[in-house]
Amino acid sequence: MPRRASATTPLLADDRHDSASESEDDALRGSSASAHTGRSLYMRLREVFLFGWALLATAGILIMAVWVSHNSQTHFSKPAGKRNLIFMVSDGMGPASLSLTRSFRQYTEGLEYGDTLTLDKHFWGSSRTRSSSSLVTDSAAGATAFSCGKKSYNGAISILPDKTPCGTVLEAAKRAGFVTGLVVTTDITDATPACFASHVDLREQEDEIAMQEVGEGPLGRVVDLMFGGGRCHFLPNGTEGSCRADDVDVVDIAKSQHGWNYIDSRAGFDALWEGKVDIPLPMLGLFADTDFPFELDRRNMNEVYPSLSEMAKTAIRALEKATVNSDKGFFLMIEGSRIDHAGHGNDPAAQVREVLEYDKAFKFVIDFLKESKTEGVLVATSDHETGGLSIARQNTPGYPEYLWYPAVLANASSSSEYLAKKLHRHIASLEDPSMLSVEELTTYINDELVVPGLGISDASDSELAEIVKSTESAQPLLAKMVSVRAQIGWSTHGHSAVDVNVYSSGGPGTEEIRGNRENSEIGQFLRNYIDVDVEAITKELVEKMDRKPSFQSVEATTAKEGDHWAAHEDFEMRRLTNDIESS
Ligand SMILES: *[C@@H]1O[C@H](CO)[C@@H](O)[C@H](O)[C@H]1NC(C)=O
Ligand SMILES: *[C@@H]1O[C@H](CO)[C@@H](O)[C@H](O)[C@H]1NC(C)=O
Ligand SMILES: [Zn+2]
After folding, report:
1. CA-to-CA distance for 574 and 416, rounded, in angstroms?
2. What is the pLDDT of residue 11?
3. Which residues in 397-512 belong to E strands, given as ranges?
4. pTM for the whole thing?
5. Is the pLDDT reported for residue 572 higher than 60?
6. How far is CA 86 from CA 144, 205, 314, 332, 504, in A?
7. Percent of the chain with pLDDT over 90
8. Most buried pick, 26, 528, 535, 582, via CB within 10 A?
């Protein structure tokens, strides 16, 4: 690797410098040599001996350094044998989320304060997350850095700043004979999964992303297993549960044109017996219209939605079985998608449960790799942090106490998102919402949402009055009641630029992503580890999509990107606050 090679350069340079100055010293001493010839001869011999010895030692070290570097280089860039690669993304999880969740778990399970999450035990380094268009990235640019190993603009789905497509590690893996999978808890057409199996200019083009993901893209079908939400993008406009603009039936195309097996319910998922039976591939499992509920709420709807760890387990076993007789392994991306949404909603009670579930899925993968006969690596990181989360909050002008209260988060049994939706459904269910008195609404909010849902029994009149006044903002207001009491701080409803953590099982080549890295370096590691030709895929994509580099349009869109993205984030917020959904 270039970095390794350059690391040896200073060693050489220093050496030349040392020997040069030594001969200068010799020359100086030479002028006074005649005065003490005997002693001087001894000194000179001793110096010659020491110099020779130093030279030999240095040469030895150099030879060893080159040998070691060469050895690890060849081992890394030309991996031999079958191997599996699992890449996990904790969308929107910054370092503070780990401290929050670790302490929460210690509190709720009565553990020692030395007790850590499984993630903590596999801490590897950190990643810098900026995109090509902004110091604060979005998930699309973040995932493009992982899938293509290159920086791009916010909103890009594996498209580069010059508007040409870039081949992804998943596409190259599929082409090389690997079996591939994507597992998420949000729309399968959302930015992170989309970046591995589709190419569009903007993340909002989810109808098109759905088409490409099932096999209608320039490369045909590249994914063998998909589990997630976002079913609404696969159903034709006009049918129940659709959010497509056109009347294309993507499920039908998937089944009839690309051979997908399709399941859309918990019953369908349970019939896979967590992968203990043979699972026919390709397998498309869409278990929610849009997002899965937060884990905090999902556990009360376990008969409707599988959990992230259940899906991860099933997917890994399916891919392992599918590759048992192959000389290639599998590539699987697993995303804890909604850690990000809990951050957008500034809801710490929802977030700790999302991170715990992600940690559980991470542990399953680690244990799988330990027991697997096939060599494999797990790399896990986040695309960015969300919310500017801090594990302290100053609520009053007086100097704050040094503490926060996990007990408040433990008391919540529903997310603010779920409770806000419940409120909106309640209002919508009334024949004449304008007849609802302030007293009735206040009582409903306190008795039906705040006390049983948030576990807060001391809501102030002004807190309740604020929600009554603007019910459309119920979600952030309810979340704030939790954060204030737990003394948890947030600086934004958007993303932040803080470096995020990288985790790994370790193993061949993973030293390449130790320390502080660019997110694009993580992407480069992925392709190198399974030794697949992403550049060939890029070439093919550029030809098939008939794209010419267009820097002009980059500037045009970069200027628009900000507005566009503000609109998108606004959309995400509305989805969190207003969405009156049937779930
Ligand atoms: C579905 O089609 C109708 C009628 O053409 C249109 O008004 C609506 O916006 C479409 N739905 C979506 C999500 O685009
Ligand atoms: C948790 O809820 C219980 C009963 O609902 C309440 O008595 C208690 O004060 C709450 N604890 C915290 C820390 O909010
Ligand atoms: Zn986000």
Report:
1. 13
2. 37
3. 495-496, 500-504
4. 0.84
5. no
6. 17, 27, 14, 5, 10
7. 79
8. 528
CA atoms within 13 A on the CB side of 503: 27
Which pLDDT does position 508 carry in this prediction? Answer: 87
Do 283 and 183 contact (CB within 8 A), yes or no?
no
* pLDDT value of residue 550: 83
- Kindly list the distances between the CA atom of residue 67 and the CA atoms of 6, 434, 524, 581, in Å, as whole numbers in the listed order: 15, 80, 24, 62
Amino acid letter for position 233? H
| pLDDT (mean) for 397-422 | 98
CA distance 151 to 542: 18
Ligand 2 close to Cβ of residue 411 (< 6 A): yes
Question: Which tokens in the block code for residue 330?
Answer: 């599998």
Active site residue 139: yes
- For residue range 239-261, list pLDDT tens digits in order: 999 999 999 999 999 999 999 99
pLDDT digits (tens, 9 = 90+) for 340-381: 999 999 999 999 999 999 999 999 999 999 999 999 999 999
DSSP-derived 3-state class of residue 183: strand
DSSP result, 29-96: HHTTGGGGHHHHHHHHHHHHHHHHHHHHHHHHHHHHHHHHHHHHHHHHHS--S-EEEEEEEETB--HH
- Amino acid making up residue 559: A
H or E stretch at 185: strand 179-187
Residue 350 Cα to ligand 2 middle (Å)? 17
Range in 258-262, 394-398, 534-538, 552-556 the model is least confident about: 552-556
pLDDT of 558 above 90? no
Enumerate residues with CB within 5 Å of ligand 3 (an ion). 340
- Rounded to whole angstroms, how far apart are CA atoms 363 and 137? 28
Joined tokens for residue 228: 């997630």
90, 97, 132, 139: which is the annotated catalytic residue?
139
**Nearest bound ligand to the CA of residue 576:** 3
What architecture does CATH give domain 83-390+492-582?
Answer: 3-Layer(aba) Sandwich (3.40)
Residue 561 has pLDDT above 50, yes or no: no
**Other residues' Cβ atoms within 10 Å of the Cβ of residue 308:** 29
Q: Of 319, 355, 364, which is closest to residue 337 (Cα–Cα)?
A: 355
Instruction: Name the residue at shortest CA distance from atom 8 of ligand 1.
Output: 245
| CA atoms 394, 400, 406, 411: torsion sign | negative
Q: Where are the domains of the chain?
A: 83-390+492-582, 411-486
pLDDT of residue 79: 62
Residue 297's identity, in one-letter code, is: D
Of 104, 411, 450, 483, the residue with max ligand 2 atoms within 8 A of its CB, to mutate for a pocket test, comes to 411
Ligand 1 midpoint to CA 569 (Å): 22
Q: Which of 480, 485, 306 is nearest to 407 (CA)?
A: 485
The answer on whether 383 is annotated among ligand-binding residues is yes
Report the mean per-residue pLDDT for the chain: 88
State residue 41's pLDDT score: 59
**DSSP β-ladder status, 283-286 and 375-381:** unpaired
Instruction: Pick the more confident residue, 75 or 456.
Output: 456
| Banded model confidence at residue 579, pLDDT cuts 50, 70, 90 | very low
| Span from the CA of 493 to the centroid of ligand 3 (angstroms) | 9
